[in-house]
Amino acid sequence: MERKKSLKADLENKRTLFLQIGLIISLAITLAAFEWKSYEKREVNLEQRAQSEIPEEIIPITKQEEPEPPPEPPQTTTELNIVENEADVEDDIIIDVEADDDTEVEEYTPMLQEEEDVEEEKVFMVVEEQPSFPGGEQARMRYLSNNIDYPQLARESGIQGTVYVTFVVEKDGSITDVRVLRGIGGGCDKEAIRVVKEMPRWEAGMQRGKPVRVQFNMPIRFTLQ
Question: What is the pTM assigned to this prediction?
Answer without folding.
Answer: 0.47
